[in-house]
Amino acid sequence: MEDSNHTMVFEFIFQGLCTSRELQIFLLLPFSTLYLMTLVGNLFVVILIIIDHHLHSPMYFLLANLSFVDFCLSSVNTPKLTSDLLKEKKTISFVGCMSQIVCVHLFAGSEMVLLVTMAYDRCVAICRPLHYSSIMGRQKCIWLVVISWLVGFVHSFSQLFLILDLPFCGPRVIDSFFCDIPLVMKLACTNIDTLKIIINAESGILATICFILLLISYTYILLTVQLRSKDGSSKALSTCTSHIVVVVLFFGPVIFIFLWPVNITSVDKFLSVFYSVITPLLNPAIYTLRNKDIKNAIKKLINHM
What we know:
Helix 2 (58-84) runs antiparallel to helix 3 (94-127), helix 3 runs antiparallel to helix 8 (232-259) and helix 7 runs antiparallel to helix 8. 76% of the residues lie in helices and 3% in strands. The chain has a three-stranded mixed sheet. The chain has a single domain (12-304), classed as Rhodopsin 7-helix transmembrane proteins (Rhopdopsin 7-helix transmembrane proteins, Up-down Bundle). By secondary structure, it is mostly helical.
């Protein structure tokens, strides 16, 4: 199709979570509450780690960065999703759509690498405790966080550059509540088969590498501690349970999306809601409820108030 026949698309229309107006109004309060709890929970973890000097260690430095990433990730789609529940026509500008794509992949890519970094930190702490301070120095921790952001940056903008020049001329309705790359590409007035393979491969490789590194790290932890003590495996599992739960919650939907061959809109929407709304809320709750140092810091903060 010639460029002269293309109509410039300035905005897209979301179909939203559902078509029922009553259900949308009903969902407004739960989603608003979840988003508020996510913001407060993640910011509270970040501030608590900053102000309590007992939490100034590599593990909590990485945890504070994870909470900040979750705060950012939840703020990409959830405010728009919540406000759209009140609207009949749910629209987003072309620039806004591209911005959503960049931000989602930036924060999601950064979180993948950050989770690997946290697994590496636990691996060093449990398997080489005497060398932990020298291996996980302050400068190294900062560089590991910087690398996670750089990987997210490269991942997000490589995805953007692949779809930015696609010609959009026909339907502009996206059957979702945010700009998901596969759904946006479907609206392009050109053959996207090769592009779809490239984009899926790039995202799949990053997710697969991170997940394999996580499996290796936690397997190595369990095997190492099991060899050192009789009940070592249970102790190691107890120490890393919070990390493992967060990894499962984060990578579960990603793996399902890549491995599930059937495209079911309702399932995709549920996974998208879980990924962008529920997971960022659960992460601070999991670490707070299972971590003694965090709970002690909260008690001290309450006593000083």
